[in-house]
Amino acid sequence: MALKVVKFHQRWKFVVNGNIDHVPSLLQTRLLQRSHSSAVPRKIPSNSVNCGGKMAKKKLASFSDRKVISESLSSDKQQTILKQPKHQLTEQRFSNKIISPTVTPKTRSTSFISVPMGRRTKSRSFMDIVPPAPIAIPNLPSNSTDFIVNLKKDDISRILENFARRPLVRELSEQNNVNRKMFHAAYKSFRNYCLNASPLDPCIAVTISDVLNKGYLKIVLSARDVDSLYPYFIEHAKRVYPHLECEKELKTLSDLSKPHNWYPKAREVFRRIHFHAGPTNSGKTYEALQRFYQARTGFYCGPLRLLASEVCQKTNERGINCDMVTGEERRYAVDADNPSSHVAMTVEMVPVDVSVDIAVIDEIQMLRDQSRGWAWTRALLGIAAEEIHLCGEEAAIDIVRNLLDPIGEHVEVHKYERKTPLFLSEQALKKLDNIQDGDCLVCFSVSMLFSITRRLMKLGIQPTVIYGALPPWTKLNQAKIFNEMTRKPNVMVATDAVGMGLNLNVRRIIFVQFPFGEHQANYHVVQVAGRAGRFQSAYPEGYVSTLRQSDMPMLKNFMEEPIKSIETAGIAPTSEQLETFSYHLPHASFLSIIDMFISISSLSKKFHLCDIDQFRKLAELIDEIPLSMKVRYAFCTAPVDMDMDNSVARTCFVRIARRFAEGQGINYNWFCEIIQWPLPKPTNITMLLDMCKLYNLIDLYLWLSYKFPDMFPDREKVRHLGKLIESYINEALATISNLTSETNDVSQRIYTYSVFIVAEKETVSQRLLREGLGIVGAILGIHGYMFENLCSFMKMEVILCPQWTVISVYSPELHEKIDEVTRTVGRPTGIEGW
């Protein structure tokens, strides 16, 4: 039987012959549990240090051997070596272990560096990351110098080979932090220099000549004769690896354990900290904003453009001039030359060199975020305000106190309770026919969102739609349509993007599925569920439920389990740190500098290093383009969509960086050319998603235009283009019934691979009955609107793997279809998750 393996948009793969690849965590956990219970334990050999075998039996270097080389070293280095007992030298000589930088008990070295595809791996040693610098070899005519020592290349090669084989040379090189890999690279460069330099350095030439003269009458050179080359070799090695001269400085620059020392302006102010703690819909942000309105000057720092825009609008409506600052937009109550006393901004944009009376930092619990947590940590420690109001979950109280305790700042906590009740429904929705006014169906993938939307359209229900890739003002427009309650029934289908930044008249939140597994932290689900029954909305009570009854126990666990206290806050290196770090490594690429910085950086137990996958991917794309460090850092922090299937964004990003490096401005006409504008209005789901990706490029241009206004001169033209794209997207969502019609199905985006495992021609059902096995991982995260074509395409022979008997289905349609099949032919044994 030919086994069909289906993949959608590079998001996941199937379980094939027991191998797990891109499987949702719930299914993966169950598969691993089954495999561990049935598999034979494999004995893992213990790690042992190879002490060199026969090498360990060689005679140790004598005291006189060590003394010969020590005469060429500095006095402090002599004392270090000569005072060491002979057995310590022996252990270091024959050990494969590389001594890592010393870390104090209060700090810890980062154990991970970010790599592409969102995976994490153990960090490589700093010594393994540093690239060797090229050494220029002089090539002058023989008559251009007065000092020439005639040496044969064969003699030089023989002497250098004896030198490299000396155990004491390796030992002393390790004393100078030259590990084995670096030693080979440095020796190769040193040998190349000695053989090809014209003229050869006089000191090296004389030393080699002396060695030859001493060994003229000897058949084999004495080992000690070549030791006098060591000082010249180590000097050359420090040219090949410049960091050897400044290792202490590099460790100091990469010390991330005390970030409060990075903000001298804030340390000059005696700050009063107020923490407004409570769940969603408890009024905590409202109370903090009252102080913001009363202040003479103030900052509001929020996680989203929509929140910054809302606060800016409300402040101006009160007669208080307020500007808005985000990465992609600036709004001024008066104009750019007359800044307002109050500023609402996204948290990444807050200045740490300006003093204000009041600062409000919203959603402070996001300092635990793996991607953006550094921005909240920076705002908390760096804002120079006399009074700071933090708004967020109670789970952040302890970490905030821990961060501010070394500064000597007291945290005053104000706790709030939810203003309206939120109830957990006893029963799931079960069928979309049971949908009611004010319901919001929450999906955790865009594919499922459009699947549910299509099914609602078949029932005659036209929902409003919100997902993360939509432009901010399109989300606001969809929220406005939903809040006006003109549609009957008034229903919304959204991703978890509704969890923050929008005020909605939602009566009931219904989770379509939980694809992220049982062991996911519950705070995200609680945040989304809290959008139901908002204070002063049309519904005084909120409810939360699921689409499937089988998901209700999981939802109950999420809602009832206490949210764990946050243990660490996010942190990331600053542009100034990386720039100073790079001065000591002039030949290293920016990508190497990032890896080197991370590999030797040290953190205290209060912090975690934020995920720099996005940053690193962008750095890799422009690694070969000649840009200054500041420009390169700015480009790598730009808002670029790096999804696997968004090759257009990556291509445009590289072309913009290359044109920037050539000194040519990125004008409107050239920008339209690279994004292939104009494009037709969206007529199906695929075109709508592509249009949203195009809007991301508009954001990229606007963001860079504020960093480099001279090189991006047509900001307003591009902003107007963005508004036009928004109108296209709004029109498409207004006629979403056309987008989700069967004639516009995107089944052509299914990629199939054939894996032949059995030559027998029999159906899955027959084999299940014959072998008593179940279906494994049938369809993971399937696009519901592709279900009919997919089932006919695969003829229900979805997947069969003899090693597993577990099923995990996230599509309601497929769930019902398989249930119908099993009722007909008999339910297979060992099936879970029905």
Automatic annotation (TrEMBL):
GO biological process, one term: mitochondrial RNA 3'-end processing
Reactions catalysed, as given in the entry: ATP + H2O = ADP + phosphate + H(+)
Sorted UniProt keywords: ATP-binding, Helicase, Hydrolase, Mitochondrion, Nucleotide-binding, Transit peptide
Cofactors required: Mn(2+); Mg(2+)
Source species: Thelazia callipaeda
EC number: 3.6.4.13
Domain Helicase C-terminal stretches: 424-579
Predominant localisation class: mitochondrion
Any one cellular-component term (Gene Ontology): mitochondrial degradosome
UniProt name for this protein: RNA helicase
Signal sequence segment: none
One function term, GO molecular function aspect: hydrolase activity
Compartments, as annotated in UniProt: Mitochondrion
Family: Belongs to the helicase family.
PANTHER family documented for this protein: ATP-DEPENDENT RNA AND DNA HELICASE, ATP-DEPENDENT RNA HELICASE SUPV3L1, MITOCHONDRIAL-RELATED
Keyword Mitochondrion assigned: yes
EC primary class: hydrolase
Annotated SMART domains: HELICc (SM00490)
